[in-house]
Amino acid sequence: MIGRISRTTAALVVFAVSVFPVYWMVLTAFKPTKDIQSATPTFLPLPITFEHFGTAIAAKGFFSFWRNSLLVAGGAVLLSLLVALLAAYAVARLQWKGRRGFILMVFVAQMTPWEALLIPIYVIARDTGMLDTLWMLTLVYFMITLPFTVVTLRGFLAAIPVDLEEAAQVDGCSRAQAFRRVVFPLLAPGLLATSLFGFITAWNEFAFANVLIIKDQDDRTLPVWLSSFNNTFGTDWGATMAASTLFMLPVLLIFIVLQGRVTTGIVGGAVKG
Amino acid sequence: MTLVAERPVRTPAPATPKRRRRPVLPYLLIAPTLLATAYLLLYPLVRNVIISLQEFGLPQLVRGDAKFVGLANYARVLSDPEFWAVVRRTLWFTAINVVLIMVLSTLVALLLVRLGRWLRLLVMGGLVLTWATPVIAATTVFQWLFQSRLGVVNWALVALGFEEYRDYTWFADGEATFGILVALIVWQSIPFAAMSLYAAMITIPQELYEAARMDGAGAWRVFSTITFPMLRAMFGLITCLEVIWVVKAFVQIWVISQGGPGQATTTLPVYAFQVAQSLQRYDLGAAVSMLMVVLLVLALLAYFRQLYRQEREA
Fold this sequence. Notes:
The complex is a heterodimer.
Chain A (H helix, E strand, L loop, with lengths): L1 H29 L2 H4 L14 H8 L3 H32 L5 H12 L7 H10 L6 H25 L3 H9 L4 H30 L2 H6 L9 H6 L1 H5 L3 H22 L2 H12 L1
Helix pairs in contact in A: 1-13, 3-13, 4-7, 4-9, 5-7, 7-9, 8-9, 9-14
Chain B lengths: L24 H28 L1 E2 L2 H6 L3 E2 L3 H7 L2 H34 L2 H16 L2 H11 L6 H8 L14 H28 L4 H9 L4 H12 L1 H16 L3 H6 L11 H11 L3 H32 L1
Antiparallel strand pairs in B: 1-2
Helix pairs in contact in B: 1-14, 3-14, 4-8, 4-11, 5-8, 8-11, 11-14, 13-14
């Protein structure tokens, strides 16, 4: 009995500690300014106001930062999906010399300490006239997400029985047709999951966005803008928290979409086949 | 993310002499990946090595006529007491973070195993929420939590009777800022470590625990004789990953303190960036970041050894 009570208490403490910062962020975003500035904080979301979201959205450049972030993250993910799908197919389905070496390379690339490459990439971008362009940022994010995408897609592909493809090929499909008609539909949930995770990585990235976009402030992405909220909102914590909440929203939606769906999709599809 | 065990690729049917020639298709398929890796990863890495061997400041960046100076930059960095202070701080920072992350994650994982369905879902939901919080959002929120005048942490501490925390400016004090950064990184890292350990723990057969309990083993004994030995490879794997992630933690530190106040929170990646950006000594910054890469490669080798062990045991 005592064990049970202490376990429940511990569980509630863990829950509270994990949730509180996010709760406090959202709560502050909805609080009227006078409640934010009162000496005794309130812990319940009443009354609520949308004033801070208005301030955040009305901030100069808000929409172009959103557009930039979407463009860069979306472009990087599409590019890496395309490139990784080809490589993942070669690794999961074909037999060739150098395959092990290639897999090892991808694993090593996945562990790249990108923080150590800020300086050379800045210099390269400057030399090639790519500084202050969203293209450069897209390319960097593409490379950051590529190894992970190859590894995950290879896993998803390997989970689809080869027999399905071979059966289609026996029935007269070419290799490409077999892939498009049989494998691709089964792979779709995996593609979705992988691309969404890649999207989150690119959406959240700060260090390169901070280094590669300097002169043209309109080309900044959301994380850099958010980190400089002091310049934008001063000490308006309500607006800052509203902006943070808006920034986190897409990521949270993706996590909810992915919750459990991906693995069941893959397993269900493969078993049925 | 997930470690997918190698699936044996079907060996091709007994080949007729004609089919023996080397297939081109696989190499065409991996060509884009190889090209991208060569240009966007290998080339910057090589360029970093080159810059670290040159005299490369602002004039050279503009004119592009950098001269090779051999190992002079490394000699200069390695003989600078400030660099060694940064290394010591980085190791200290890493040790504190990783120990806290591993101990707390293990406790959370053990707790998850023992919880009923609903409480477990609740705690996991909380962990996933933490996991989903973008670094920049978390960093911004922590600045707000620890604000001197309106921050909720100071309010709570004063309410608990610690009067000295009224209007306490956390970010003006080196150790306090260091502590906040540790709290932030530990808070963000626990979900991954705890959920991975939990997923590994539920694969241990229940009979082992029952047998141990029948022999009268207490909780600590069960953990040290069953759980830990069985998951040794998993613990090693996650520890290596956390070491790598903590050593190269940059964004949190840069956004909250830029390495300050003073140098109190300057770790290796922050130091490399400071030297390059603020002092515009790209050569010295490159040398520092290469030394960091060496440090990380050591951790990485340990990680790959664990990975190999894990795949063999699985």
